[in-house]
Give the backbone structure.
Amino acid sequence: NKVMNLTILTSKKSWINLNRKKIIELNLIKGIKSLKVITDPKQISNKNEILIILSYTNLINQKNLKKSNLNLVVHESNLPSGKGWTPLFWQILEGKSKVITTLFEPNSKIDDGKIIFKKVFNYPKDLVYEEIKVKQFKNAINLINKFISKYKKDKTIRYYKTKKNLKSSFYKKRTPDMSRISLEKSLKTQFDLLRISDNMLYPCYFYFRGKKYYLKLTKNI
């Protein structure tokens, strides 16, 4: 399906913003020749038919949300459980490979709004950071395309009925110090930490004999 007037709002340091050309080359979004990416809610225009919010870490006020005809957020958790920052990475660290992803219409609260779809995606335990991010983006577009194909037919949004026993919970923001490797533990027990760490921005590190060393993981494909 051809997607018209599609804009993605993301953070300046997000994988999406730093890899715009790569995303187009991967041909993950069908039917468009260019990808409009913005990093400031003030850039939202009334011309946007659909605004997709991906990997954006700040709250957006209602004034800016109302500038777009329709706003959608993709969040890698079983909302309302798992609100907050980098939920996919936190769940990988918990040992999960199957992760529920939620598509919802946002309001002015953190990771809150009317839920449209939920779908389980598999993240094999051999994937490293770059592969995880590509797969994460592919899965997000999968949900968006699923929604758009239905929305085009009658412009009606059908909402998902959330189970009442799901409790709200939050993941805290990951900071660079959380990428520290312990020399007292085996690499095997810290492998998931290595594979979710960005080699460029937030590489794993350790201290030895008074010096700081970086430990970067790549995979021989």
In short: The chain has a mean pLDDT of 86. The first helix runs from residue 15 to 18. Residues 76 and 136 are 8 Å apart (CA to CA). The helical segments are 15-18, 20-26, 62-65, 87-93, 129-154, 191-195.
